Amino acid sequence: MTQVGIEGVVKRFGDTTALDGVSLVVGAGELFTLLGPSGCGKTTLLRIVAGLLPQDAGTVRFAGTVIDAVPPYARNLGVVFQSYAIFPHLSVRDNIAYGLRARKLPAPALAARVAETARLVQLEGLLDRMPAALSGGQQQRAVLARALVIEPRLLLMDEPLSNLDARLRFQLRGLIRRLQRQLGITTLYVTHDQEEALAISDTIAVMDQGRVLQTGKPWELYRAPASRFVAEFLGSMNVVAGRVASPGRAGVAATVETDFGTRWAVADGRGLPAGAPVYLGVRPESLRLDPPPAAEAWNSAAGRIVEVTYLGALVRYEVRVGDGVSLTAEVHDPDFATLRSVGDPVTLWCRPTKVISLADR
To answer: What global pTM score does this model have?
Structure first.
């Protein structure tokens, strides 16, 4: 297992800075995801780690050794790209064996390793088929097998599921995660899909405009985003603007006058000075539609439902609470006898521990 160290990496394309001093540590054996919108620099960083692009500044290390001058073919990498990149003139067997033949592995060992890798990705019965006879998911499994069969020190995956339908994405992300854990291979994974990142990652780095904004475990980033961008990119987040009425201190919540006229308590509000503008974040699943207990009344917002979205396991309500201000609430495992309708008046509320303060960026 290989640790990857990325130290102060800068990459420019003309006047555009694609990476602006990025530093990360990918732990040995972990699945580390670069998450962000298109153009944020995540694929550029992956290509630098692969040796396909030179950086303008900074260093990349594998297991503590600088590899900046090592050519791509000598880095012992497995790579899976967004496009299937499967050789159409070769059978599944020969596609998987391609990298082993380049390494001149003896035929018996080559055949055994191809068979075992095909079994891992559930293609053992399709080895003699041509790519044209495979589904998109089967083609991508063949490409994954080709990347794994060489036993790489590092697996790089760039949006590998984006061309598949929802059902296949769900199946393949589970397969990728199981194989990564089983083989213990260090993996750097690129995606713009927040659900995908939350489902498969040991660690996530959220990127924007060539910078890493926050790094952490999936649940850490989801529950405690450091900024509005991270909060809104990683899952749905209601962002409430307001001004600090009283600062928090040990054991005492801060209070904030919201822009829609009610006072909210913020359990994590220490360090917020009185009178300062602030953004508060609360996840849709943390908002309740039932009348709040008397002690919780100030963390509330009265409004009227303007949109109802039924999604099977949950119902999503959009509630207008002020001029131009709406909050989203999600009710999981809903009681269908008490479903609300557009136009119904409701009072949303949440506990102070579910409200966080957010940096503007």
So the answer is: 0.90
